[in-house]
Structure formats: structure tokens, C-alpha cells
Design a protein that fits this description.
The protein has 486 residues and is an alpha+beta fold. It has 15 helices and 21 strands. The structure holds adenosine-5'-diphosphate and magnesium ion (MG). The site of adenosine-5'-diphosphate has 19 residues, from strand 6, strand 14 and strand 16.
């Protein structure tokens, strides 16, 4: 990336080496002891945890931009809710994509079958995370950034409800240790975990069977276990009656069935709410069994997070379609809201075999460094960046390109900081970092009614300025939290 603007840091840097080593050792232990941890991929044991990579001190983020992202979240929630319930829009938007992308086609197929057979449950639970980055590209701007832009909206498995607030906790500890307790007031409160879990509890209440459970759909091995378990523990703590079960899609296929009223039954348990922390990538469906399980759950009376239409609303193709002229007006009535949401989109381009799609293809070949190429996938590691784009595009035929979208590369400002990772035996170095802010939103409702809609905390992920992607579980990113600059 060619980012050059630098955000001022919250404390004078560098930190002298002796202090740095001492506070790093302490902070690592503090992290493990407070559940800021993951299972190791390189040295896996189900019985052991490593601390999750984190940035030692909070990264600066302009207060005004932070607040505007927070304030917009209920509008994003409402937008995604409307999109999810617009059958015609989803069908037209995904029509070309599903011809060439099997995974999206499978999801769409579940959607079509449920539409044909009738939804067992009208209410959906949306636990969304809108990911944004500051943008510096605007020329002649005296500030280090000019605005923020949306990277994507996640409608499935929006993680870090625990690790988001926990990042603030470990960094507050470090700030205090370094003698900067007075600055903690500039680190915004973060109620992500309670906000998200309260959405699940509310849905459980709406379901209306005090004996029913909440089901987490999980992978065979969960590396990001603390994040998930803290959701479970919070729920049990707030509502001792509510049991949380964890099952893979394969287990649901084997153990699950529908009752006479379309109740989802797992052994003797009736399921009130299904929270998908897996099911967003092809590997989670090793056979038709898992797709059958997904379909059975979609047909059931359980309230899904997400329901299949919400899942489809979160595809990159839908995001690209929403950025087209006059599209937002279909979903939002207030012209001011339309204008504000439009401003957060960066350039998004279809690559299907149309005049516009072919023009975007040519543009990507000419100036690839301006873009990122994205397939309909979640979970990190799937995108193609800059100079790698032409080769990738040339390998596809015109029809296959419809599985992808093209997006302007956002260029966030740099901040300086220390990234602390497990197994790093040396003193951390002061490095150039860039951050991505995620704002959580909770929305519950059906096609006619929104029962609740609120913003629920945030998370910040930070990576080396030279890295393309910054997933924390995926390996390159680190937990962080914002320090608000006035
Ligand atoms: N337009 C963009 N500009 C800069 N970085 C981007 C852009 N789009 C994605 N990224 C980087 O790639 C990561 C993954 O992309 P994303 O669209 O969020 O896909 P995924 O669904 O795999 O998370 C982001 O977290 C961000 O670090
Ligand atoms: Mg993402």
C-alpha cells in the first residue's frame, strides 16, 4: 500500500526498551488470564490457549469519524433488513453470480426451497458488523484522512463481541502500567458482548418456550474459542435457565429433526435460536448432509442468526449492487440517510459480461494497483490484490468473472505501534500499522416489523501497513481498540 499519512500516537513513542520488555511480559499474562486468547493453530491442543495477538497501546482514530460510524449503524441495520426481505432484488442481483459460483448457488438454492415451502419462522435475528477504514486518498486534505469507507457488512458469524471489549481492557491495563491512566477516558466504552448476547436472549424470549435452548453452529475445531464461549457464559449468567448447545452442521444432520410444528429438535432439546458461527464457507459443508441440515434449520420455527436471506444479503455482490446509482432509494426512505450511506461506499464494480462489467475488467487490467478483487466468500484470505489481479482475471472466462466483484483499494492512514504475538522472543519493534474498525449492530424483526434495532459496541483490528489482510484468527491481524483524537 502507498499510505503515507500518519496519525499521531496517544503517548510518546518509542517506549524505552527496558520498560517495553517489562510491560509486554505483564500484558501477555494479563491477556491469557482474562480470556484474550485463542487455541494455537501451529501447536494445537484443545486443552491449551495462547494469548491472541494484540497491539500494545491503542491506535488513534478520529473521534468525529468514530462517532459518525457508530451513529450510522442503525441505518445500516435497517438497510440490510430491507435488502434481506426483498426477494426480487436478491434474485436479480445474484442471478449471474450463482451460475458460476457453486457455494452462493447452494445458499440460493436453500433460499428458493424455503420460499417455495414457506418460512417456519418470520422473525430473523441480525447480528451485523459493518467494517470500515479511514480513507486518505482525497487529495490536498490537511488531515491524515478525509473520510471513512465501508469494507463490507458481515451478516453471518460477526465475531469479536468478546475480544473487542477485551482489547480495550488489556490496553487500559498497559496504559495504567505506563503511567498514562489519565488517557483511558479517550478510549470509548464498548458494550459489544452484552449488546450481541442481549439480542440472542431477546430472540429466545420471542420464541416463547422457556425450556428451549440456544444452538451455536460451530466448526469441527474452534480456534477462536474464547470469543464464542464468552457469549455462551454471558447468556447463562444473565439467564440461568437458557442452555447453549454447540453443534457442527454434520451433528445437526445426524441428531436433528423437525417436530410436528416445525420445531427444531436435537435429542430432547427444542431449539429457540440458532447462532451460526460456522456455515459461511464451503469447507463447512463437506457433503450434502450439511446442506440438508442447513435447509432443515431454515425450515424450522427456530429464530436464525442469520436466516438464509440475511446470509445472502451479506454477499459482496449485494454490496456492489447497493453502491449503484439510485439503488439505496429502494430500501431507505429518508433522502438524508441515502446520501450519508452513499458517501461510505468506495468504488464497487460488477465484472459480469455487460458493457459496464467489461469496462471494469479493462480498468482492472490497466491500473490493478488501485483495486482489490473479491469472490463471494467470507472469513479472510480469499481476495486478490493489486498486481496479482490481471493474471487472475485473465484465467477466467467472461461468464466466470460474474463470481467476483472489483473494489477500489482503501488507503488508510498509518499509526505507529507495537504488535505483540505469541512465540515472539524478542522485544517488539515499533512498526507502521493500519486499522479496520468494525461496528456491531443488532436488529430483530420480520418483513413487516422491526422489533428492535440498535448499535452494540465495536472492535478494532490492526495489521502491518504492508499486509493486505488483517484477520486475527487468520494470522496477520492483531486486536486493538481505538484511542479517540479530537
Ligand atoms: N477495498 C479495500 N481496501 C483495502 N483493504 C481491503 C479492501 N477490501 C478488503 N480489504 C482487506 O481485506 C480484508 C478482507 O476483506 P473482506 O472484504 O472483509 O473479506 P472477508 O469476508 O474475507 O472478511 C479486510 O479485512 C481488509 O483488511
Ligand atoms: Mg471482512
Amino acid at each position: 500500500m502507498t499510505t503515507t499519512s500518519v496519525l499521531e500516537s496517544c503517548i510518546p513513542l518509542p517506549i524505552d526498551k527496558g520498560t517495553l520488555l517489562e510491560v509486554t511480559e505483564k500484558a501477555k499474562d494479563w491477556a491469557i488470564m482474562h480470556g484474550i486468547a485463542m487455541r494455537s493453530k501451529t501447536n494445537f491442543s484443545p486443552d491449551a490457549l495462547n494469548f491472541a495477538p494484540f497491539i500494545l497501546i491503542p491506535s488513534s482514530f478520529p473521534r468525529k469519524e468514530f462517532e459518525s460510524a457508530v451513529n450510522l449503524q442503525t441505518v445500516i441495520n435497517q438497510l440490510m433488513h430491507s435488502v434481506a426481505h426483498d426477494e426480487e432484488f436478491l434474485t436479480t442481483t445474484l442471478a449471474e453470480t450463482i451460475k458460476v459460483d457453486d457455494f452462493t448457488a447452494n445458499l440460493f438454492n436453500v433460499y428458493k426451497k424455503v420460499l417455495a415451502n414457506g418460512f417456519g419462522q418470520r422473525i430473523s435475528l441480525g447480528l451485523l458488523r459493518s467494517d470500515v477504514m479511514l480513507e486518505t486518498k482525497c487529495k490536498n486534505n490537511p488531515r491524515a484522512y478525509s473520510s471513512w469507507k465501508q469494507v463490507e457488512v458481515n451478516t453471518i458469524a460477526s465475531g469479536f463481541g468478546h475480544l473487542g471489549p477485551a482489547s480495550k481492557a488489556v490496553q487500559s491495563f498497559v496504559m495504567r502500567e505506563l503511567g498514562h491512566a489519565d488517557k483511558i477516558k479517550n478510549m470509548p466504552d464498548n458494550n459489544a458482548l452484552s449488546g450481541i448476547c442481549d439480542g440472542m436472549i431477546k430472540s429466545w424470549e420471542l420464541y416463547g418456550n422457556p425450556g428451549a435452548v440456544i444452538l451455536f453452529i460451530v466448526e469441527v475445531i474452534t480456534y477462536n474459542i474464547c470469543d464464542q464461549r464468552f457469549h455462551e457464559f454471558y447468556i447463562r449468567d444473565q439467564c440461568p435457565k437458557v442452555q447453549v448447545l454447540r453443534r457442527t452442521l454434520t451433528q445437526v444432520f445426524k441428531e436433528g429433526k423437525l417436530g410436528s410444528n416445525k420445531e427444531l429438535l436435537l435429542g430432547e432439546h427444542e431449539v429457540a435460536v440458532i447462532y451460526f458461527r460456522a456455515g459461511y464457507e464451503p469447507a463447512h459443508y463437506p457433503s450434502q448432509d450439511e446442506w440438508d441440515a442447513r435447509y432443515m434449520m431454515e425450515c424450522s420455527r427456530a429464530i436464525k442468526c442469520p436466516s438464509i436471506h440475511y446470509h445472502l444479503a451479506g454477499t459482496k455482490k449485494v454490496q456492489q449492487a447497493l453502491a449503484q446509482p439510485a439503488m439505496l432509494e429502494r430500501f431507505l426512505n429518508d433522502p438524508e440517510q441515502v446520501k450519508t450511506v452513499k458517501e461510505i461506499f468506495t468504488g464497487l464494480y460488477a465484472l459480469d459480461d455487460t458493457e459496464a462489467g467489461n469496462a471494469a475488467y479493462e480498468m482492472a487490467l490497466q491500473e490493478p494497483e488501485r483495486f482489490v478483487l473479491k469472490p463471494q466468500r467470507e472469513g479472510g484470505g480469499n481476495n486478490i490484490y493489486g498486481v496479482d489481479i490481471p493474471d487472475a482475471l485473465r484465467k477466467m472466462n467472461r461468464v466466470e468473472r460474474a463470481a467476483w466483484i472489483l473494489m477500489d483499494l482503501i488507503q488508510p492512514p498509518i499509526s505507529k505501534g507495537y504488535m505483540i504475538r505469541p512465540d515472539n522472543k524478542y522485544a517488539p519493534e515499533l512498526v507502521d500499522l493500519v486499522s479496520e474498525l468494525g461496528i456491531f449492530g443488532v436488529i430483530i424483526g420480520d418483513v413487516d416489523n422491526i422489533i428492535c434495532n440498535y448499535q452494540a459496541g465495536h472492535m478494532l483490528r490492526t495489521k502491518l501497513s504492508t499486509a493486505n489482510e488483517g484477520g486475527v484468527a487468520a494470522g496477520l491481524g492483531a486486536l486493538d481498540s481505538p484511542y479517540l483524537l479530537d
